[in-house]
Amino acid sequence: GENVEQHPSTLSVQEGDSAVIKCTYSDSASNYFPWYKQELGKRPQLIIDIRSNVGEKKDQRIAVTLNKTAKHFSLHITETQPEDSAVYFCAASKAGGTSYGKLTFGQGTILTVHP
Amino acid sequence: EAGVAQSPRYKIIEKRQSVAFWCNPISGHATLYWYQQILGQGPKLLIQFQNNGVVDDSQLPKDRFSAERLKGVDSTLKIQPAKLEDSAVYLCASSLYYHYEQYFGPGTRLTVT
Question: Which helix (H) or strand (E) holds B43?
Answer without folding.
Answer: none
